[in-house]
Amino acid sequence: MKTTVGVVESDEHAKKTGVKVLGRYIAPTEHRIFFIVEAESYKSITDFLKPMMKMGTPRITPVSELGKAIKPFLE
């Protein structure tokens, strides 16, 4: 059986939950793991992170590409 982190590290788990993982990072001195993901829904992201939710409190922050986000303000 895979460990909690091992499940979320799996490309198979990402595909099963409908998440495309663009990057996985760790800040070891802070005991934090970061994922850059794309998904069609918030539920897909929470399903992807569910195995790790027992380890701490996840924080999901939606972001946009800077250029696309500021374009309306530049016109």
Describe this structure in words.
The chain is of the alpha+beta class. The chain is built from four helices and two strands. The protein has a two-stranded antiparallel ribbon with strand order 1-2. The chain is globular, with a radius of gyration of 14 Å.
Please describe the structure with a list of short key phrases separated by commas or semicolons.
about 80 residues, alpha+beta, two-stranded antiparallel ribbon, about 40% helix, globular
Could you outline the blueprint of secondary structure elements for this entry?
Layout: H1 4-9, H2 11-17, E1 19-27, E2 32-39, H3 42-49, H4 66-74
Antiparallel strand pairs: 1-2
Helix pairs in contact: 2-3
Low-confidence stretches: none
Strand proportion, as a percent range, falls in: 15-25%
Gyration radius, in Å: 14 Å
Strand/helix succession:
HHEEHH
Helix content: 40-55%
Mean pLDDT, rounded to whole units?
Answer: 89
Q: Domain count, please report it.
A: 1
Largest sheet: 2 strands, antiparallel
Structural class: alpha+beta
Number of strands: 2
Global morphology: globular
In whole angstroms, how far apart are the ends? Answer: 54 Å
Q: What is the strand arrangement across the widest sheet?
A: 1-2
Number of helices: 4
